[in-house]
Specification:
This protein is of the alpha/beta class. The protein folds into three domains: 2-147 and 273-343, FAD/NAD(P)-binding domain, CATH 3.50.50.60; 160-270, FAD/NAD(P)-binding domain; 354-458, Enolase-like, domain 1 (2-Layer Sandwich). It is built from 14 helices and 22 strands. Strands 1, 2, 3, 4, 5, 6 and 17 form a seven-stranded mixed beta sheet that branches. The chain has a five-stranded parallel beta sheet with strand order 8-15-9-10-11. It is globular and about 65 Å long. The chain binds flavin-adenine dinucleotide and nicotinamide-adenine-dinucleotide (NAD). Nicotinamide-adenine-dinucleotide is lined by residues 150, 179-185, 187, 202-205, 210, 235-237, 269-272, 317-319, 349-351. The active site is at 444 (proton acceptor).
Length: 466
């Protein structure tokens, strides 16, 4: 039986980063993945393919709605849906190819199959052609998550689908109802609405992207509505059924008023659940919490002291970069290093257009906890760069401690917010003050100046530029 220093189960952003860092630190490392390609949800059916389609459809929408004003005349704009999806598949394949390269470069053994614990110290790997066993000094579980559903809604993967099936459709859908106005809901709604699908979002909460600062969701709602997405808030979906060449969805609002809609597809985007099927945890000391996540301590160590767990399967923010941080954390912790992750400084990004990005405390959190703060808010419509590019929707908002100037939260909806948020992370991670942030030079004209202006306003000075 082969013996390794570290065996990583699952090759998503948690697993592949944990394996690479382990190998870099000199450990004999094996990674086991049940699918043919490495990369997990994020690379194969999550972050990467959605961003590829969001980019393609954004170009399409610009060609349809903005090129004319830029002085670019096109005779006819035509959608080649198959080519759009083919390009998406190529982007995914380049990324999974990159991971193969990294595994080889770092001398990481790669095994294909479903890994399950036989007992606390032995792993069995089963694939179509063989079963083998191995042992390791340490195990890192990074088996991720799968889409959740709600009572009364059965995902048949044909008409009642999840994001995974939506990423491999053969033809442009004519209509789609999306259950859930969270991150997947609004990203998927953007993709399909831009290419002419009639999209309706049914959301239980009273605003979109409910876990982020509420002002962001409210602003995003206005923008998406203007683009033609039918957004219905305060609606609890309780049943779906298949009908001829489509499906039906039933919902009611908080006063009990009933509604129903027919669509070619119903996309269920109501969150994701931890994935531990086939892991054989019942043969180990590893314990789950009441929601099915693997229980870990502050070192991401499970109830079995040599088995760690990271990423979506342990809960918290279900984000690729959170899983990556934990992958590095665990490899370095095994190596005896003292590490810390500031979960409040992990940014969240929604890749609609404009993008939405956030780090730190929301206004709702500060209010609820009686923490005083100053607000600096600057609209993109007042940015010269935004005017030049016709991307004038949104704002940058910073929340700052009134006494010491500590940056408590940065919330942006606007062009390139996904990249701008990095400076908010730096400001918070290194406890840079709002004054420090406005006294540095920002290139003109750039979207980043909206943040400089927001910091100036939060510090009691007026805006100084346009
Ligand atoms: P996963 O990526 O889920 O990987 C787990 C892997 O383990 C899988 O490959 C699985 O096959 C394998 N596995 C499971 N059980 C076994 C077993 N017993 N044996 C062997 N292998 C096993 N996050 C972002 O930060 N940015 C985004 O833009 C973003 N977009 C997303 C879009 C969509 C549509 C979805 C669904 C998710 C998106 N996410 C995004 C979330 C992100 O994909 C996850 O947070 C991330 O993939 C979690 O990484 P992980 O390593 O924990 O697990
Ligand atoms: P989510 O938790 O973001 O949103 C689910 C939404 O469904 C919530 O707003 C909830 O109120 C609503 N809902 C639940 N039950 C409902 C019902 N019966 N009727 C109507 N609405 C209902 O989950 P998601 O959008 O499925 O995304 C799953 C995970 O994937 C998220 O945790 C997210 O972090 C991750 N993800 C991240 C990105 C990104 O980083 N850009 C993109 C996609 C997914």
């Amino acid at each position: 039986m082969e013996h390794y220093d570290i065996a990583v189960i699952g090759s998503g952003p948690g697993g592949y980063v944990a394996a690479i860092r382990s190998a870099q630190l000199g450990y004999k490392t094996v990674i086991i993945e049940k699918y043919d390609t490495l990369g997990g949800t994020c690379t194969n059916v999550g972050c990467i393919p959605t961003k590829a389609l969001l980019d393609s459809t954004h170009h399409y929408a610009e060609a349809e709605h903005q090129f004319n004003e830029h002085g670019i005349k096109l005779d006819k704009i035509e959608l080649d849906f198959s080519q759009m999806y083919r390009r998406k598949a190529e982007v995914v394949s380049k990324n999974t190819g990159g991971l193969n390269f990294l595994m080889n470069k770092n001398n990481i053994t790669r095994l294909k199959g479903t890994a399950g614990f036989v007992n606390n110290s032995t792993l069995k790997i089963v694939n179509e052609s063989e079963t083998k066993q191995l042992t390791a000094k340490y195990y890192i579980i990074a088996t991720g998550s799968k889409p959740s559903s709600i009572p009364g809604v059965e995902i048949d993967k044909k008409r009642i689908i999840t994001s995974t099936e939506a990423l491999s459709l053969q033809e442009k859908p004519e209509s789609m109802v999306i259950i859930g106005g969270g991150v997947i809901g609004v990203e998927m709604a953007s993709i399909f609405n831009r290419i002419g699908t009639k999209v309706t979002i049914l959301e239980y909460a009273d605003h979109l992207i409910a876990t982020m600062d509420h002002e962001l969701g409210k602003n995003l709602q206005k923008i998406l509505k203007k683009e033609g997405i039918d957004i219905r808030l305060n609606q609890a979906v309780y049943r779906t059924e298949n009908v001829d060449s489509g499906a039906k969805v039933f919902f009611k609002d908080k006063n009990g008023a009933e509604g129903e809609l027919d669509a070619e597809y119903i996309l269920v985007a109501v969150g994701r659940s931890p994935y531990v099927k086939g892991l054989g945890l019942e043969n180990t000391d590893v314990q789950l919490d009441e929601r099915g996540f693997i229980k870990v301590d502050e070192n991401r160590r499970t109830s079995a002291s040599h088995i760690y767990a990271i990423g979506d399967v342990i809960g918290g923010a279900m984000l690729a970069h959170k899983a990556e941080e934990e992958g590095v954390f665990v490899a370095e912790t095994i190596n005896g290093q003292k590490r810390h992750i500031h979960y409040n400084r992990i940014p969240s990004v929604v890749y609609t257009w404009p993008e939405v990005a956030s780090v730190g405390y929301t206004e709702e959190y500060l209010k609820k906890n009686n923490i005083t703060y100053n607000i600096g808010k600057f609209p993109f419509s007042a940015s010269a760069r935004a005017r030049a590019s016709m991307d004038m929707e949104g704002f940058a908002k910073v929340l700052v401690d009134p006494k010491y100037g500590e940056v408590l939260g940065v919330h942006i909806i606007g062009a390139r917010a996904a990249d701008l948020i990095a400076q908010g992370v730096i400001a918070q991670e290194y406890e840079v003050t709002a004054e420090d942030m406005f006294r540095i030079s920002y290139a003109h004209p750039t979207y980043s100046e909206t943040l400089k202006e927001a910091y100036l306003i939060a510090s009691g000075q007026g805006a100084i530029n346009i």
